[in-house]
Specification:
By secondary structure, the chain is mainly alpha-helical. It contains 10 helices and 2 strands. The protein folds into 2 domains: about 160 residues, Serine Threonine Protein Phosphatase 5, Tetratricopeptide repeat (Alpha Horseshoe); about 80 residues, LysM domain (Membrane-bound Lytic Murein Transglycosylase D, Chain A, Roll). Helix 9 packs across helix 10. It starts with a helix and ends with a strand.
């Protein structure tokens, strides 16, 4: 009997350490103001039912409810504390109560209840010590041990799943960054094209140098061939960089479609279809 009790006392701390390591890896350390966190834990529907049963003296029901919460919500420190209290005060199980008190302090190292919990831990250890010396038969903790082992296994699985989700999110973020860079380059290319088109479409107002003053009283001497205008009696325009027949027609007529009139009047100059070159002097028909 003494040997069995010694084995049990060594098993629970080992299980508690394993749980602590898993919880630490999951990031369950300090999470803000303790009071705010415990208020949120107490507001849980299952916790409310369990605490109501505890207050009504229905300790077996409270035990089952608190135990269920610690399984479904392994980081609910308040549930561990209340379950430890029920185990210690009502079920007279200091072994299992000790493990829950230690889990509470691991999750809430800065809790205001720390002194109270440490006192309960001291009392639980004293009760265990007295049972050993008095030869009192210890409780069978095989079920509790199995529960903790299952909880450790579940927490490890949750940690692995969380790490997998994190890796997947990082891959998605990396792909999004590559797509963003690609779209940024494409946008810059399109903006450059638009700027080029706008610059080509801009036409400065004509200057006296660009236009020839026409003497309306002067009649052209001699016949002229169609398509070959007499440049001495026509207004002219010197082609600038970026000009086109379309932009020149838009400038002088306000109608780009009249570029054909300019082309027809300058067949002797336009040797390459509608292409104009900087420095060309074009006749602009009226």
């Amino acid at each position: 009997m003494t040997r069995a009790r010694a084995t049990s006392s060594r098993t629970l701390p080992a299980i508690g350490c394993a749980i602590a390591l898993v919880l630490l890896a999951s990031g369950c350390g300090r999470r803000g103001a303790v009071q705010t966190i415990e208020s949120a834990e107490a507001a849980d529907a299952a916790m409310k039912t369990a605490m109501a049963a505890q207050a009504a003296g229905e300790f077996d029901k409270a035990y089952d409810l608190f135990k269920a919460v610690t399984i479904s919500q392994s980081t609910n420190a308040l549930a561990h504390l209340q379950l430890g209290i029920v185990l210690q005060d009502s079920r007279k199980d200091p072994f299992t109560a000790l493990s829950h008190f230690q889990t509470y302090l691991f999750l809430r190292p800065d809790a205001e209840k720390r002194d109270m919990v440490e006192e309960r831990i001291r009392q639980a250890k004293l009760q265990i010590s007295l049972e050993y010396r008095g030869g009192v038969e210890t409780v069978n903790i095989a079920d509790e041990r199995k529960q903790w082992e299952e909880q450790v296994s579940r927490l490890k699985g949750e940690l692995a799943a969380a790490q997998k989700r994190l890796a997947s999110n990082e891959e998605a973020l990396s792909a999004a960054r590559v797509e963003k860079e690609k779209l940024t380059r494409e946008l810059a290319r399109l903006n450059k094209q638009v700027d080029t088109m706008l610059n080509n479409a801009k036409v400065s107002p004509p200057t006296p140098k660009d236009l020839a003053i026409i003497n309306l009283e002067t009649e052209p001497s001699g016949p002229t061939n169609a398509g070959f205008a007499d440049r001495s009696v026509q207004r002219t325009y010197e082609v600038k960089r970026g000009d086109s027949l379309w932009s020149i027609a838009q400038r002088f007529y306000g109608d780009a479609s009249r570029n054909k009139d300019i082309r027809d009047a300058n067949r002797d100059v336009l040797r390459n279809g509608d292409q104009v070159e900087q420095g060309m002097v074009l006749v602009i028909p009226y």
